[in-house]
Structures
1.
Amino acid sequence: MKELGCSFKIATSAPLSKTSKTERENRFPFLPYLYTMSKKVRVRFAPSPTGGLHVGGMRTVLFNYLFAKQQGGDFVLRIEDTDQNRYVPGAEEYIMECLQWCNLLPDESPYNGGAYAPYRQSERKALYKQYAEQLVQGGQAYYAFDTPEELEEMRTRYRTADNPQPQYNHILREQMRNSLTLGDDEVNRLMGEEMPYVIRIKMPAGEQVQLTDMIRGEVHFSTSEVDDKVLLKADGMPTYHLAVVVDDYLMKITHAFRGEEWLPSSPVHILLWKYLGWEEAMPQWAHLPLILKPDGHGKLSKRDGDRLGFPVFAMDWKDPRTEELTRGFKERGFLPEAFVNMLAMLGWNDGTAQEIFTIEELVSRFSMERVHKGGAKFDYEKAKWFNHEWIKKLPVENWLPAVKKIYEEKGVMIADDNKFIRVLELIRERATLLSDFWEQGVFFFQAPASIDAASIQSKWTEGKTAFFNAFIALADQLPDWSAAPLEAAFKELAASQNIKAGEVLLPLRIMLVGGKFGPGVFDIAAIIGKEETAGRIRHALQLL
RNA sequence: GCCGCGUUGGUCAAUCGGCUAAGACGCAUCCCUUUCACGGAUGAAUGACGGGUUCGACUCCCGUACGCGGUACCA
């Protein structure tokens, strides 16, 4: 217990923002040591299963994972499904699939279990009430019987220009129907009648709550500004506020990372840790900056992706109610390595110019202290650049299956893996997304559906027709069907016929590929083979 | 409205009080390449504003402006 208190003192005593960076970096190398001396690091990702997992959520996963692995700790996945109205079937499995795709798997989860199971809050329902009751007994919470209509009535009644959103707070609770205003007899009567009620936290007036955030340093709140949040709902389920605190405590979470949108309600959580008598065990907080829309302002949302034409979810998400399909990074042709790398750079860097990081590098270099305070606008162009870099970096074998799948889904079966690898190696630097391998590579496996004849027709001559016929004949005699001798033969023939190579090179490309793109023509000819090359030339000659 | 958090090129960003302000994406021009890419070179483009503190401020402090978040029996 002693070293535990000690570690917290060191970690929280001096506000990070008030210390110099030198001081900070001198201090932090010791933290891993302290963590292991005091207790095992345990972090959690705690999503609500309400739909697709967007970039912001995935980044929270990543930062949790990196921190846990770096500190030799545990990464827990906890499903926060306390709102039955918002529960979406399939969303939970989908979250797991996203983590699996990125290879950021939790050590404990509803799927692989763990010492602190269950990991689904709906399955822990019975746990929470006792803590809420404990607070009522201690005078830090109270029963409230106000119906939704009464709450609405209160909000309209007290709404003014200066106070557009009246809160159920230390002032207004005096006007409401709760165990603070009603008296014991009335409360007992209502309880006896099974009148629905909630338990609200009794926020003190005029106290200061201080929070040490690993990213932001000291943050202060006045309790007068915070309303009496509902802790336990009328259906017996806890709200987020109660559930996070109870579960983080029960699951021995040491570091709680979440989006910045939670900062304003953190005083509620801190007070809860204190009121429940668990202050010593309170995790260290880090509120991650938001990921913003590329244009305009505000949090990045699914809608922005639809509007601007880029994915926002990690993987394809099909809403079971509307049947609406939202495309994900995976299906758009992203490599998980690139996606993870891109995510890491959204709000963090290691202080050097390095931008391409493997997961191992991220695990060793990551530090919460270097996470930015300000939000970052999402840039899809940059995201694609990361993917391009990873396509160039990773061995072909690594992503070959994914590309093969694209081909086979489009009806082109790959019989010869060696040929496929040769092709992929040849065109990889032309691909930004895995899906680009289709346009850049189909012509190796089937003749182009249409050829850009317009580009060569105007300058076409009888002499060129003769040249290509001669080339077919000549090529047929070639002992070595590979790029270099082919090129030599082609150029020699052109010279002998007084044709500039440049005048027939583009036509050859268009005959073989269909358009003005792709790798070297002779490399293409070498791969598709003698018969196919001759066939495509003859076919094109007929069209001309 | 109130509370909280932010603010370096179009975007992501480095900067530990010495700045002639890195690097990347994107953009432009050029080289390489008889295609398209890759690669290479070059260029345009940045400290919100006002006060302090200091020999010196992008950096520290205070205001202002702007942006974002929160203000639910949603998370």
2.
Amino acid sequence: MSEPAACIPLEKLLPTELFKALGDPNRIAILCDLCECRGGPKTVSELAAELPVDLSVVSRHLGVLKRARVLDAERNGKNVQYSVRAGDLVAILRSLADAIESCCPASKPTETETRTGPAEPGSVSQP
Amino acid sequence: MSEPAACIPLEKLLPTELFKALGDPNRIAILCDLCECRGGPKTVSELAAELPVDLSVVSRHLGVLKRARVLDAERNGKNVQYSVRAGDLVAILRSLADAIESCCPASKPTETETRTGPAEPGSVSQP
DNA sequence: ACTTCACTTGCATTCTGAGACAATTGTGCT
DNA sequence: AGCACAATTGTCTCAGAATGCAAGTGAAGT
């Protein structure tokens, strides 16, 4: 019996807040920046230097990411060091993947609609 | 050497579109609905019956999820059956988790800020 | 104490996105 | 062809989010 009996309930694993936080290009850029190899924590100024928006905006984005449990903040003198909560994040992503897998046994990647262009809802079958 | 040499670049693995698609409660509800054990594909009407919004809105949400490669659509007579692209989704989540883990070796879950209340950006060190 | 630097927050503006309703398209049936 | 049903799309409105600028807060140096 290599088949798990029931599927893992998804509702508890899908925090809208997290995805909403990751749904902005600038916030994604921040996350990528902080995830760079051996990058370690960075300050708001350092992160803002890489982005095309005002520092205050970056500060707000960091607040959103922090509320969503994506980042961690720690004061260090005059600066605030932001870092990725990698452990938590990885755990969430893994358990989410497990849950989806457990609920949808037919896990066949790239079966339909794998051509180049994206498909609109209406273009299910084009004439 | 159980340590990978370099970290996996995150930029390519973080599609803003996907997270934006998952950043809406109704879309999450749709995903959960479609992920229910042995649920199989469902039509727009069936999905709309579970949601407090108009059918047209559900159709649009399905379009967003489809564009984000979360769902798959297939016409079946008068109906359109929507199903979860579980394989792709699981693969994306897993490779994302791997990438984050590879970039941030200090994966210590729930280290700081793990109390009940959320923390604002300004409340790094409270007096 | 005063100044400076780093960051946060208040406020106004702009823009995106969700939602409802109506109209249209697509499919099957008689 | 004509009708009925399913789904998509057009259009409008409204709420929430992103942004910039200015003002406020906190910490360190002089």
